[in-house]
Amino acid sequence: MVEQVTFRDVRIIKPAAPDFRPYNDYIGSTMEILDVFTGELTAIHSSAEPFEAPNWTTDGQKLIMNISGNGTAKGVLRTFDLATRRIETLNTGPRVQNNNDHVLTFDGSMLAISNHTGPDRKSTIFTLPVTGSDEPTQITDPAWGDSYLHGWSPDAKWITYTANRNNQWDIYKVHVDTKQEVQLTDNNTLEDGPEYSPDGEWIYFNSTRTGLMQIWRMRPDGSDQQPVFSDNYQNWFPHISPDGKWMIVISYDPAIVEATDHPYYKHVLIRLLPIPTSSAEALAKENGSAAPKVIAYVYGGQGTINVPSWSPDSRRIAFVSNSDLP
């Protein structure tokens, strides 16, 4: 007797070796585009050379990604043309030791990057036109400590980031013109992933202040800090859709990942939630009783959606999955 079986939505991956060394050993990457409403998923590019963190340009034509791994291209930014599938290096001048924090302004004209600068290779924020530059403009000072970029204000006057100051990780913002740094949180916990809402009313971020890594928001001056979403996962990197209606997060199993970590090469979830509009009290009730929608089961983690990756029409996201490609 012959039985016929149909498989749907199956992902086959070859995971990293059990003894791989994080941030030293890397496996290959696949760029995928997902329609968050229909579930249509398309893999558009795979490479044994690992890459991370796709931004979608505001004209809808390209993705920007960084190269990871240990090759000579590590830290270089590249563009991926969605129509031609052509890949080109984005000119960042001497700033080539970049990590996976690179963010576009809301109008798409400028790009901010986190570059490892100085003798101690501190993560330092620079800005440049989205078309590239021979000499990006330095915004933060490596003497202040590490500064890991995450978001622009809608008016492009402020950049927000997580930074290590006085042996504590908090969220800061800096004025692009004056280089004045402003501290927004002050907690002896890890605060990370700050990103402005498109209307400029909120900064969304993730924090371990309640134990697990969960999603919070605050006003741009640091006031009115309130929980947005929490459950039994470690939830990182809230990214708000351009229309301001939706948020995606990446979620880790707390049984295998600590609250303060967002490692490579784990089974993770990408989940979709509506942006809340109620007060903090109603917000907790509203989101506490409704589970977010799982829109992708991914082998990835670090580098999957570290940066805003929504399409301009607020329908699709770009993300990176990993497999040990030949």
Describe what this molecule looks like in 3D.
The chain is mainly beta and 326 residues long. It has one domain: 6 Propeller (Neuraminidase), CATH 2.120.10.30. Helix content is 3%, strand content 46%. The chain has one helix and 23 strands. It has a four-stranded antiparallel β-sheet, with no helix packed on it. A four-stranded antiparallel β-sheet has the order 7-8-9-10, with no helix packed on it. Strands 11-12-13-14 form a four-stranded antiparallel β-sheet, with no helix packed on it. A hairpin with a 5-residue loop joins strand 11 and strand 12. The longest helix has 9 residues. The chain is globular.
What count of structural domains? 1
Q: Give the number of DSSP strands.
A: 23
CATH superfamily name? TolB, C-terminal domain
Q: What's the helical proportion of residues? A: under 10%
Query: What value does the average pLDDT take?
Result: 94
* Poorly predicted runs of 5 or more residues: 285-289
In angstroms, what is the radius of gyration? 19 Å
Q: Per DSSP, what share of the residues sits in E-state strands of 2 or more residues?
A: over 45%
If strands are numbered along the chain, what order do they take across the biggest sheet?
3-4-5-6
CATH topology: Neuraminidase
Biggest pleated sheet: 4 strands, antiparallel
Kindly name the structural category.
mainly beta
- The appropriate CATH architecture is 6 Propeller
Helices and strands, in order, run as EEEEEEEEEEEEEEEEEEEEEHEE
Number of helices: 1
**Could you name the CATH class?**
Mainly Beta
Q: What's the end-to-end separation, in Å?
A: 37 Å
Give the overall shape: globular
